[in-house]
Amino acid sequence: MTGIQIGNEFLDLSAGAVIEMEDQNPFLQFDENLIGEFSYPFNVRCTEKNDRLLGYPGIPQVRVNPAGVDALLYDKSLQVASGKVKIEKVNSNINRRSASTVDCYFLTKASSFWQDAKGKSLRSIEAGGDRTFAWEGYITTGTGFWKHLNDVFFSAPNTYDYAFFPVRNNQAITTSIDESRPDYDRIINKVYFDVVNDRWIMRGQFCPFPYLHYIIKKAMAFVGWTVSGDILDDDNFRKITILNTRSIDWAYIRKTGNVIDHHPYDSITFNLNQHLPDMEIGAFLIAIKNKFGLHLDFDRVRRHLTISLMDSILDMPVVDMTSKASPLLPKTIKGEKSIYAMVYADGRGSISLENTFFQGELASRDDLPAAAEALHDQAYYISMENKYVICKQNETDDNWDWQAFGDNNNDYAPAGKNNEISTKALIPGMELYTDFYNRRLLVPFIDDEIESIHNNFESVDFPLYLCYYHGLRALDNPDPGTLNYPLGSSSVYDIEMNQLADWGLTFTCFKPDGTDIGLYTTFWERFLALTNGEEEYEVNLYLPLHEYMVLKFSDRIVINGIHLFIRNIKSAIPYKGVIQCVCIRL
């Protein structure tokens, strides 16, 4: 018997009703949407009970709830799925309501989660609530706002739910009155050094950067789900923060002549959810998935998401299904292998070295040869900055120097690409910034409008930027002694070329010896090489229900010596002991 339970009651289904289900493998979905498990439409009559359970869709004047109704799916008194019943079409009979019918379909797993998260923005999540601090002066004792800023600025990664570190932004609001240094103040979260004090925080624009793993957990909790996965406990992943360009409203500005004064409020409050991109939770998860090659496994019964790496399937055991497969194995030849480009959704494109004389990788600019006309158009990759430089003649004074050719935060486009994986998770560039005392700081670089006390918080939108926080690291040319500052980076090195992470945040990221530790090599290459076969098989598997229920899309199966990976599954409730699969040959 097939049954759909809503609350404590079952829908009245037609005798012999069959619900056909289809499930797409999320490992093989790289679009901006993730298709889950769904049923084909089935028809129910508008009985009194069905009308009540479904929200009276048989009454033409009633607006149908597009979110659907929570439900359980049963097969022979055994619960086989938990999800939502959604209404696709209502066939109303205004003379005899009992003759009205409703076309429904059932969503479970990922499909059900997307319904829970639909229309919910990151800016609406509970991200720790309001954080309020009294103003106790520009002091680093007590419990006031300035003390808190100092504590977070100079803390180790994950000491708090967010970090502060300097970021160069061309559109940051400058308060400098020195026309010879127009870009001096174009820094978010500026740390200032002088010859007397070790360091202090420069009054200006303070933007908290929440940790990515923290926001993932809070976003899932907001829609009523829990989340786990080894990646969330990975030391590298836990250092990733979300940049933003909305500063904390901590003071008002008063200008007297050429003097710009900050006048702090008596009480200062900020909430992390207002320092997140204005994007839906579902789009946020897809952006992270398509950035890091993650598998999102949704358990609707427990309302739990398990996150794992896609290439983890290469380490899974192989299951021999020869004895349970139909002897007929139709095969389709696609004609070419899929070669994927990794692209950013903002259309930034890829960097091309074709018109340069590329010379290889170097640790830092200090290793570059002296610029000269004989080296024109020679290019190098600089590991410290995750950037390409090129030897060009300076148009201002006709001298030859090494100029920035491009940050290595663009698309990855291999030769012969015929497919693409797109992500909205952007990565900042990197820059060597020189402070007032000619000390060099390695800082992230963006070029986005900012909401700040300096422009009366004119509303702007900003994209999803990801950036490491590496903790306190040395800056160049310190005086006096060794000075440390909070280092944010898209790469893995500090200014002394200490490696601080196992992999970079860009699709390619090179060590000075040419080793690529970027995201493509680290998370994507093995998996895509395994699953880009040119042949697809149609396979019928005869499985008992308990074996079908534990079959996973991460399982690699073997039939008569042929290694296969399931692309999609079709089945029916009540279960007839067979499922239809489309598989790709590995």
How does this model look, in words?
- The protein is mostly beta strands.
- It is 11% helix and 35% strand.
- The chain has seven helices and 39 strands.
- The strands form ten sheets. Strands 1, 2, 3, 4, 5, 6, 7, 8, 23, 24, 36, 37, 38 and 39 form a 14-stranded mixed β-sheet that branches.
- A hairpin with a 2-residue loop joins strand 6 (69-75) and strand 7.
List the helices and strands and how they pair.
Elements: E1 2-6, E2 9-10, E3 19-24, E4 37-39, E5 42-45, H1 48-53, E6 69-75, E7 78-91, E8 101-108, H2 109-117, E9 131-134, H3 145-153, E10 162-163, E11 167-169, E12 187-188, E13 191-192, E14 200-201, E15 209-210, H4 212-222, E16 226-228, E17 240-243, E18 251-256, E19 259-264, E20 267-270, H5 281-292, E21 294-299, E22 304-309, E23 318-320, E24 331-333, E25 340-344, E26 357-362, E27 378-382, E28 387-393, E29 400-407, E30 419-423, E31 425-426, E32 429-434, E33 440-446, E34 464-474, E35 484-489, H6 519-530, E36 535-542, H7 545-550, E37 556-559, E38 562-573, E39 578-585
Parallel strand pairs: 11-33, 16-22, 23-37, 25-30, 26-27, 31-34
Antiparallel strand pairs: 1-2, 1-6, 3-4, 3-38, 4-8, 5-8, 6-7, 7-8, 9-20, 10-15, 11-12, 13-14, 17-34, 18-19, 21-22, 24-36, 27-28, 28-29, 32-33, 34-35, 36-39, 37-38, 38-39
